[in-house]
Specification:
There is one protein chain. This protein has about 425 residues and is an alpha/beta fold. It folds into 2 domains: about 1-165 and about 360-375, Glycogen Phosphorylase B (Rossmann fold, 3-Layer(aba) Sandwich), CATH 3.40.50.2000; about 170-355, Rossmann fold (3-Layer(aba) Sandwich), CATH 3.40.50.2000. The chain contains 16 helices and 15 strands. The strands form 3 sheets. It has a 7-stranded parallel beta sheet with strand order 5-3-1-6-7-8-9, with helices on both faces. A 6-stranded parallel beta sheet has the order 12-11-10-13-14-15. The protein starts with a strand and ends with a helix.
Length: about 425
């Protein structure tokens, strides 16, 4: 079987991605990191399994080393012809591709696997269900997929966890500073834009300081992580418009950035040195855009106790004794409680990561997905459905008899996205 993987993204410079299976994310976006991880693993798999072949399509910003059948610079519009000419049986692409380019595969011999890393609109997924060229829709977590179980796309859907790699040096860093001996430090990691929720943590930070006066907040990330060229605000932490929404909460007595907040910028492997000295990790406390949250797992690998808001994307990646907050107003207190609790033991969390998020475990699931597409048979899997998704489950059963009943939240989702598009257009 000939697999094609199209890696998107437009980072501002070339990144060394030759060691992603052992050294983790070199500092690129999470979606691109996962595509490169899968391509790297599949290349090795194909080398030892006759009948398997891999071709990688990318823009040239990711140095993946030698040994690949690599096509640089192919546009989305060219891909149906590229796949026909090269004999690609299955093409894995980002589900955010323009729908017109995805529809172009209808009627071709190449089966499309749409890999959904972002939340995505319900309407878009309705269209995936109608395109015969889209043979499988792969979500990145159980919670992500369960958000669409009453959508017609469910018939084509499965999930494969994101893989999270690290080398033994991370284990040594974690073990070098036991939790009880760490300072009262918190770490946030992610793009410094509204989608990753730093504003939620910034607004909670004064309350954390009241409860734990010696607390410090390490901020790893950049407003330009995904290639944007942001005009920075006066505190130098985020784009001017976004920074203005939370700046008053993190100012010090002199009007500058509060001395308890330490900006590290965009880091590659150095991020582990920072996180392994912190007690608490706070990945995206807004949670609305999270489908898996790689940085939550990376924080856990460093021995941090993760505290964040409940989100469907966190149900498998932030297991107890980490903390998922149901009410945003409780975030500050739960962070403070975690900072002051010396008894936290990360051992069960580390075991959970090894069982579920290793590249070998995830890669095996992808092989099953490709074989399912090749054979034209559904995936055989039992999926536990938490109570938060029972309404969708009931709606899915109802739609079997009354298919005109819309998926839960379809209207609200469509209106929200229409408002977001209108807002962007009015800003121009």
């Amino acid at each position: 079987m000939h697999i094609g993987i199209y890696i998107g993204g437009t980072p501002s410079r070339v990144f060394d991605c030759t060691k992603v299976l052992t050294a983790g994310n070199p500092g690129i976006g999470g979606t691109e990191y996962e595509f490169i991880m899968l391509a790297t693993w599949l290349r090795r798999y194909a080398e030892s399994h006759p009948g398997w072949k891999l071709t990688v399509f990318q823009g040239g910003r990711y140095d993946m080393g030698d040994g690949y059948d690599m096509v640089v610079g192919a546009s989305m519009a060219e891909m149906p012809e590229q796949c026909r000419r090269r004999g690609i049986d299955v093409l894995v692409l980002d589900s955010r591709w323009p729908l017109g380019h995805i529809k172009a595969f209808d009627g071709t011999s190449t089966a499309v696997v749409a890999w959904c890393h972002c939340v995505g609109s319900m309407y878009r997924h309705l269209l995936y269900a109608r395109h015969p060229g889209v043979r499988k829709v792969v979500f990145v977590s159980r919670g992500h997929m369960l958000g669409f179980i009453d959508n017609p796309v469910a018939a084509k859907s499965t999930y494969a966890f994101n893989a999270v790699s690290h080398d033994k040096a991370v284990d040594r860093l974690r073990e070098a500073v036991p939790f009880a001996k760490r300072p009262h430090d918190v770490v946030f990691m992610g793009a410094l834009d509204e989608s990753k929720g730093f504003h939620v943590l910034a607004k909670a930070w004064p309350e954390v300081l009241k409860a734990v006066p010696d607390a410090r907040l390490h901020v790893i990330g950049s407003a330009n992580l995904y290639g944007a060229d942001a005009h920075m605000g006066p505190l130098g932490i985020a784009a001017e418009d976004y920074e203005a929404t939370f700046a008053d909460h993190i100012k010090g007595p002199d009007g500058g950035l509060h001395p308890s907040i330490i900006l590290h910028g965009q880091l590659a492997q150095e991020k582990y040195d920072v996180m392994a000295r912190c007690r608490v990790g706070v990945p995206n406390p807004d949670g609305a855009t999270e489908t898996f949250c790689i940085c939550a797992v990376e924080m856990e690998l460093c021995g941090c106790r993760v505290v964040t808001s409940w989100s469907s994307g966190y149900i498998d990646t932030v297991p107890a004794p980490n903390v998922l907050v149901r009410k945003r107003g409780e975030l500050a207190q739960r962070i403070a409680d975690a900072l002051l609790d010396d008894s936290f033991d990360c051992t069960p969390v580390i075991d959970h990561i090894g069982r579920n998020f290793s590249m070998d475990s995830v890669g095996s699931k992808w092989i099953a997905i490709f074989e399912s597409v090749r054979d034209g048979v559904p995936m055989e899997e039992h999926i536990d459905i938490p109570r938060e998704f029972r309404r969708r489950q009931r709606n899915a059963r109802l739609r079997r008899y009354l298919p005109f009943v819309p998926p839960v939240g379809l209207l609200g989702d469509t209106l929200a996205r229409f408002k977001a598009v209108l807002k962007r257009k009015l800003k121009r």
